Amino acid sequence: MLMHTLRNAALALVGVLLIAVGVAQTDDSSKIQAARAATEPVFELGRYLSDIQTLEEKYPKLALSKEQAKQLLPILQEIKATKRLTPEVAQKLLPKVQGILNPTQRSQVAQIASQRTPGTEGGAPGANRVQFLNYANGGAFNPLTNSQTALGQDFAKLLAAMEKRAR
Question: Where are the domains positioned within the chain?
Fold first, then answer.
């Protein structure tokens, strides 16, 4: 009888633990979904910068001038130094970046963006769950400096190119 009671208690405990884990995972999933939606302006900025990097690589005649590099460099350095890149900051920086390009460059960047496959080249799917949970919990969040994603790699290449060109 005692063994039967202990067995039932152990099974009940396992059941409670499984429910708790399921609730925690559901809570994390909803936090991640909310963070994905909230951080879209950060990824929009990142994709735009990635598209400028593509412009630099594939269209050398449209590459940024030394003057443009000098204007863009402080913005890129600010992004690099930022531990938590908020949507509000990204929304302020994107028009500044766009304003540095001339109309021909902006047009070509728009064309590059239209040819991008959704969810590739550094879009939100490239960011991992941990990044979104960090954002949701008020921690560090800067996918543009994540060297494990295409977005982060493009950002690093663009920063290096602008540092070199601005000299």
Answer: 1-38, 39-166
